[in-house]
Amino acid sequence: MTPANALRTHWPEYLIEAWAPGMFMVSAGLVTLLVESVASPLRAALRIRWCGARSSDWRWV
After folding, report:
1. pTM of the predicted model as reported, rounded to 2 decimal places
2. What number is the average pLDDT over the span 8-20?
């Protein structure tokens, strides 16, 4: 089987193999943005739950 023929035959698999890691990277970036952004209400909620501290108590070192 030639490479061109393999590409014509298996292009859906190649497309999925490119799409899946791309979607993982996008979702990982969005979760990181939501958790690490200083203005994020999710960060404040996680800080209250895990540390018992209010978001106003946060001090950058």
Report:
1. 0.61
2. 95
